[in-house]
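URGENT: need a sanity check before tomorrow's submission.

F., can you look over the 5'-3' exonuclease alpha-helical arch N-terminal domain-containing protein record below? I want to be sure the sequence and structure line up before it goes out.
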Amino acid sequence: MPGRTDGKPRLVVLDSHGILYRAFFAFANTEHPLMTSKGN
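Structure tokens as predicted:
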């Protein structure tokens, strides 16, 4: 990886359950979640 000189592996932890939970409630409460108020 560019910029890493220590040679240690990187551990990335994703809270996928939390991401899906938030996305569900972001899209579940609207009739057309991916439309603007103008219908685009």
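My own read: The radius of gyration is 19 Å. The helical segments are 16-28. If you see anything odd, call me.
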